[in-house]
Description:
Helix 9 links the parallel strand 4 and strand 5 (178-180). The protein has 14 helices and five strands. Helix 3 (58-71) packs across helix 13, helix 4 crosses helix 8 and helix 10 packs antiparallel against helix 13. By secondary structure, it is mainly alpha-helical. It folds into two domains: 7-180 and 300-329, 3-Layer(aba) Sandwich (Rossmann fold); 204-293, Tyrosyl-Transfer RNA Synthetase.
Amino acid sequence: MKDDREIVMSGIRPTGFLHLGNYFGAIRNYVKMQDDYNCFFMVADWHSLTTHPDTKQLKSNVHRVLAENIACGLNPDKVALYCQSHVHETAELYLYLNMLAYKGELEKTVTFKDKVRQNPENVNAGLLTYPVLQAADIILHRAKFVPVGKDQEQHLEMARNFVNRFNHRYGEVFPEPQAFNYNQALIKVPSLDNTGKMSKSENQLATLYLADNDATIRKKVMKAVTDSGPVEMNSAKPDYIENIFDLMKLVSSAEVINRFEDEFNNCTIRYGDMKKQLAEDMVNFISPIRNQVEAILQDEKYLLQVMETGAAKAIESAKATMLQVRKAMGLQYY
Ligand code: AMP
């Protein structure tokens, strides 16, 4: 059936438990977009191999990411929810795009430089060309919108460059993909200790995971960095305080947020009370998701069916694009 809605694509690597950064930066928008757009969302298992070559946990991690997306409200009947490695056309497009990506620009990518610093023993070509594979994932479905967090901004800019080079050299095949957050700036959820961002594999004690139990959530929130409070009325919030307000906006009622905003503005705020409130609201937000994830994970048959149906939708779209790509590139010889 022809779908005239605008196309959306995004993915999450199965490198560990999903956290509030993934939720805020990505999944919340996936769920919002699923009714109005033609959506392709995938578990980026090939991407995870660039930093996590040990595949012993991969299957359970893939299942978990799928279950976590569904538990957050993604409906596999409304979107294509699939696994990257099931769509082999991705590898072909990745190869073509590699000819349009230059070593110099790849080496300058911030995420590449970060990963080289973190793991100098494993600077592999897959890591260098990570943004090329990501561009292939996106444009394989000719997607226009890519709901992602702020850390992906540069990768999206690179994807646009590859698209423009392709279109310029071989003819207009691809639209330019844009990072998407409903006309708002892209989001970065900082870690609770304010030393970096929430992450699947770093800053684990300062990251809130959708799998954290109630006691762990409370402990982590209470340890969030604060200070002794504002001394001037209506002053600007330091970023670590803004972060606590941002987390609160995700899970607390407008009434609660307004109360703490007022207290901040008139310098009567007690951050201990604010964190206690946030911890309880977080527990109420995370615990139903966590329980739902556990229930979904028990039903492996359902997860396999989700992956199969999702792959079929993604492969159909990928095949149609690749026909256009090969034609445009002059790779059809008979
Ligand atoms: P990754 O965990 O790197 O596979 O990223 C999956 C999605 O979550 C991407 O759209 C990221 O931009 C987003 N994301 C990851 N960490 C954060 C964070 N701390 N804040 C906001 N978005 C994030």
